[in-house]
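Reply to dn_fold:

You asked what the input looked like. This is it:
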Amino acid sequence: MPTAVLAAVAGAFTYVAAVDPNEPGHYPVCPLLRLTGLYCPGCGGLRSAHAVAHGDLPAALHANAPAVLGYAAFAVLWTLWTVRAARGRRSAFSPGPVLLWTLGSLLLAFTIVRNLPLGGWLTP
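and this is what came back:
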């Protein structure tokens, strides 16, 4: 199962690496951005993935820093899952409510700040 997940993620990253999200018309526009002019926490995520796939970490962080942290967290969790699976153990990661509420609160704060004039440096 870890191999199938890795194949799906690698396929998605390969596609985003090949089809530049900085070029208009390749991907749909964020509905929240289109309707309200506000950036959601995912805005810039494709540009971030494109930059990561091309090894441009500063551009990836500028496009969407939480997404880059998410890619890194995925890599760590996938590695732990793979090692546990290879040893015949079940995956033990089960995020509790405190972790989920904390992550949700951080994403909400990121969304609010990136839409304020002082958070202009966080816009994609």
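The mean pLDDT is 92.
Hope that clears it up.
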